Amino acid sequence: MADRLGLLLRHALLLGGAAVMLAPFVLMLSISLKPPGEIFAPEFRLLPLQWAAVENYTAAFTKVPLLRFLLNGFIVTFCIFVAQAVTALPMAYALAKLRWRGRDTAFLLVLAALLVPPQVPAIPLYIALWQLDLLNTYAAIILPSTISVFGIFLMRQFFRTVPDDLIAAARMDGLGEFAIVWRIMLPTAAPALAAFGCLSFIWNWNEFFWPYIAVQDEHLMTPPLGIAFFSNAEAGTNWGALMAAATVTTAPLAIAFLLASRAFVRGVTMTGIK
Amino acid sequence: MASVDLIGIGKRFGAVDVLRDVTLRIADGEFLAILGPSGCGKSTLLRILAGLEGADRGEVRLGAERVDRLPPKARNLAMVFQSYALYPYMTVRQNIALPLEMRRLSALQRLPLLGRLLPGTQLRRRAIAEDVAAAAEPLQLTHLLDRRPAQLSGGQRQRVALARAMVRHPAAFLMDEPLSNLDARLRTEARAEIMALRQRLGATMLYVTHDQAEAMAMADRIAVMQGGRVLQLAPPQELYDEPASLEVARFVGSPPMNAIPARIGADGRIEAAGVSLPWRSGAAPGTPVTFGVRAEALVPAAQGLPARVERLERLGAEALLHCALPGSGAALVVRLDTAEAGAHPPGTTLRLMPARAVIFDAEGKRLPATRQQGAVTASSEPAYG
């Protein structure tokens, strides 16, 4: 009986937490379906009396170049992830599996870099990009994120679980160190890399601070900048359309999260390999 | 195929001397087993030969060529690991083909898609496929080529590891405890496979193991290692019959050789457990020695070492009598026919005559000894111990 009660309490607590987490999203979705008159109506309804979904979503796609913002978001997050993978994999391999003087110090530096908030190097980065004449380009958004210390840390932890014999066998079979990274470590680490990819995607898709500093052109804006731009352009009158735009830009994140959970499961099942 | 020379190899890990001046010369086509307990440095020696580890001192030669400065891939050696170290996400076919691809295809030709369009790639890939099939066939892997290692049994994985090693015809095979992850029945089968492989290829083999039965069954010669040193290098039978030290004698053979505390009597004969045995050594009378005798070399007789039977262990065709010597209480194991052993139930005492024996000094070094005509007599001194 006490067990049942405990179980019930635990689930009630979890349900309450989930409700708090989901409430803003539900509200966003709900508002994106309502006409302006109903949004500020005194009584709250989840579903509108009069559906305005078509009007709101049409407005979101026509009043501002929402598709352009989405495309920019994909270009930027994809380039950042590729660059992060290309730098993090060899570095993680060197930190996890090679023996060299100063390795532990280098790893400490990686850990220390995790503690630096992104706002700290913003001004030097801005000046450097200005001197390179790269401000207001895709490169301005992408370059500062090409090296992810979190990615290095994550992949290093995963590589440490790869048996040394596998690397020894690859060396005997004639693979060089870079070939080992791409042909042996990368496929072995695919689930971990997929999980990191999803985290990187979510992080960079949502990033507002740096793109806001680095670009001014409307056609370079990423989704969060686009939303801010929208609310300015519409002067805060059309909440339904704004929430529709927010829903559209959040959707890729939800999909990424679903993919990530699948990758995590695959990662768990892969550990059955000897 | 080539001969392998390890000359004066030394290696330290921190404060620990893992290898101290190890010299081994392996002839072309020879099967050499390196036998020792875990931590004796045998695997490190193999890794130094493979190039996976650098030696602090010494030379490594393959044939006439000195290779200690060469990376593993330039040494043309193949290794089979205890864990098999198969690439988990590649099929058996890809696992076996990888060493050939790395050697026969250029970096450009190895590129996915684009590589296939380059001149010569198709031809070489076809040759590789043929070699993979030829390596898989004698190991009964043909029907498993499209599986992944996770879908294979332990014995099958072990055969894939063998196929991957032999497919490129290396100068020598290095095997690091390749059978220790298999159960007893599979181990016997795998032993036969390795022997057949060796017969077919005439390959030089270095085989590291802690299992003396494995080493005895397969090797031409065995190097017994302990504490980073080679204690003895000899053919299996010689190692068994003529161990150079007590350590080797106790490590080789199962059950281990009986070590009976003894000493040189006044007449120069060996005295143990109150009897004088017809062996003579050059050492001075009164010197304590160890009288080493194999379990099957002890024969029940009218006269000999008195032993009290404590336990009988039936093994089927034969049985082991676990005895204790009166006085010193030293343990003694006797191997007998099951029927004969039944005649000596626990609690009884019997007399045992050694048919062959070796004598070691107090440090465990072998002493020259001769067997004499004559019988066992009561010792002139009181019982030892």
TrEMBL record, chain A:
Main location: membrane
Keyword Phosphoprotein applies: no
Bilayer topology term: Multi-pass membrane protein
Membrane spanning residue stretches: 12-33, 69-95, 107-132, 138-159, 180-203, 239-260
Pfam family, one: BPD_transp_1
Coiled-coil intervals, chain numbering: none
Protein name: Carbohydrate ABC transporter permease
Entry similarity comment: Belongs to the binding-protein-dependent transport system permease family.
CDD domains: TM_PBP2
Location within or outside the cell: Cell membrane
Top-rank taxon, per record: Bacteria
Record bears the keyword Ribosomal protein: no
Keyword annotations from UniProtKB, A to Z: Cell membrane, Membrane, Transmembrane, Transmembrane helix, Transport
Automatic annotation (TrEMBL), chain B:
Any GO MF annotation of the entry: ATP binding
Signal peptide (UniProt feature, chain positions): none
Keywords, alphabetical: ATP-binding, Nucleotide-binding, Transport
Start and end residues of each ABC transporter domain: 4-252
Coiled-coil region list: none
Cited Pfam families: ABC_tran, OB_MalK
Family to which the UniProt record says this protein belongs: Belongs to the ABC transporter superfamily.
Protein name according to UniProt: ABC transporter ATP-binding protein
Source organism: Plastoroseomonas hellenica
